[in-house]
Amino acid sequence: MLRNFWRNTKQKKKGEAPPPKEGLREGESWDSLFDQADENSQRAMQQLRADYTRKTQELAKQRQEIEEQRIQLESLKTSLEDNEAYKAIRKAAQEDTGDFDPYDSESFQRYVNKIVAEKLQAVLEPMAEQQMKHHAQAKIQSFMSQHPELKTDENLRGEVRTMLENNESLSLQDAYWIVKGRRSHAASEKAQLQSLAFQKAAKASGLKVGIGQNKGVTVPKGAQKMRAHDLYQHLLKQQK
After folding, report:
1. Model pLDDT for residues 25-67, shown as the tens digit of each residue
2. Angle at CA of residue 46, ends 41 and 48, nearest 5°
3. Total number of domains constituting the chain
4. In a domain, 116, yes or no
5. Helix (H) or strand (E) segment spanning residue 67
6. Which of 110, 147, 226, 237 is the most exposed, having the fewest neighbouring CB atoms within 10 Å of its CB?
7. Is 27 exposed, middle or buried (0-12, 13-18, 19+ CB in 10 A)?
8. How far, in Å, CA of 213 to CA of 206, rounded?
9. What tens digit of pLDDT does each residue of 187-232 get?
10. Is 233 or 188 the better-scoring residue by pLDDT?
11. For residues 31 and 120, what is the distance between their CA atoms, to the nearest angstrom?
């Protein structure tokens, strides 16, 4: 012990940091050291353990109180957007009180109310903004869960993203339905063009579309999806 004392003293004089204190060695435990200690050391160790237990319980209680306060704040945030008192505070903070007259009790009261409202708004406004962001994020996640193709269809996601970038006033929902409507319209136009191409090809080959088709002439399966040229060639072969 004296050797360690003198070594630490020399290191302090040299400006060096003392070596770290030795912890439990391999195979040692608090209980084993307690059993080996003398009566006075055991009393001190019991006091240390009691202090440690008390501190741990205090920390656990503080964590519980912090969690309860967090839940209360979350509840406050949730109710801020539709809270009439908060709306009244915002209105009072933005109200024009006119010229301040310290000798007029009503003017003085309006001035005080405005200052108080501004202070309260400064505290509550960040909470309201955070709440709105949270609600917006939850709304987006809910919409994407209801329309999983937004997660799986890369082309659709790209079109929706481009739509949002080109028009910042649009919401995700608006952009999604605009793109879906555009796709539906394009698909309808494509189907109409394919139908017209089918009819023209059939007419060019002498096939009557509808009732009274030429005997021996058959329409291939999936003709509506075939290109007009391919369909025309197929029908020509049928005529031979």
Report:
1. 777 777 777 788 888 888 888 888 888 888 888 878 877 877 7
2. 95
3. 1
4. yes
5. helix 39-80
6. 237
7. exposed
8. 9
9. 666 666 666 666 666 565 555 444 444 444 455 555 555 555 565 5
10. 188
11. 55
Structure tokens at 173: 């929902």
The DSSP symbol for 216 reads T
User: In 10 A of CB 226, how many CB atoms?
Assistant: 19
Distance of CA 102 to CAs 99, 105, 109, Å? 10, 7, 9
- Note whether 114 and 92 are within 8 A (CB): yes
* Residue 220 forms part of a structural domain: no
Does residue 195 belong to any structural domain of this protein? no
- Domain boundaries, position 72: 64-146
What span, in angstroms and rounded, lies between the C-alpha atoms of 203 and 231? 11
The residue type found at 105 is: S
CA angle 31, 36, 38 (to 5 degrees): 115
